[in-house]
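Document type: protein sequence-to-structure record

Subject area: structural biology

Format: plain text, a pair of labelled lines:
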Amino acid sequence: MKSNFFEVLRPGINSTFQDLGRENFYHIGLPFSGAMDNRNYLLSNTLVNNKYEAAIEFAYQGPLLKYYGKSTVIAVSGDVNFSITKKDKKLINGECYKNYVLENEDELDIISTNKSVYGYLSVSGGFVLEKILNSYSTFSRAKIGPFKGEKLFVNQKILINKTSDFKTQKKIKYVNTKIEYIRIIKATNFDFFSKKAVENFLNKEFIVTKLTDRMGMRIKGPIIENIKEKNIRSEGIVKGTIQIPPDGDPIIMLSDHGTIGGYPKIGVVISADYDKLVQLVPNTKIKFKLVNLPEAEKIYEIYRLETDNLINQIK
């Protein structure tokens, strides 16, 4: 055991290691996985002088961790309540998008997210983890990833690659804003649905249900009527695909989605809006807006430039 590590006192809800994901393994049934909110993953890493190291992603409630070792630097991103209890019992109320020095026997308590789902914890130098298929990402359903693909667990010891207590305080003002619409492009089975169904899908509100996890998001609203086939031959699907099962309630495929599916697909959430989508908590109202592929590409370019600008502000 190296001298610098976290001990997990409370694992939190769905806390896993994630990076940018696992590329090009759809052919063996593995999705990309990776951080649900890509921008917040990148910001937490940048705040501690990392680039693409694994971060701990947590949902709703994060882990309670005790640190042992030489001073190191951490940062939390997202809309998150957290605190640091120093060895002398002094309590620091944490602020997201700002780095902090942890010293031996400090405790980091990631209490909860605020009207959002996911947050991220990064440590300078990254964690000592085994790469599986060229990624640190955890795909817990298939038990693939660090620690045999398990979520964080009580008494787990998480080693740190190298400690750093660099004196430069890094901080950025960033607000996790919501958008009025989730924008989509047409999917391959768009013409399977009646004109009325398409009008309902693009003009009526849906509600995010509690049947939501890293694999998919079930939403409920007006029934989307299929006028051709309610089931089709299974074919490849991608992150953000919106499938319509026989009951007419849409399911949006998220980062740990199955790589094939047999329900007709009405749309695909554009990449630029995916971060916003995954942060929607149950009972949130959601509306969709149809854009074409060139528009989606332009919107993504703006999203990428905004993300790069935020990262450069930190550096």
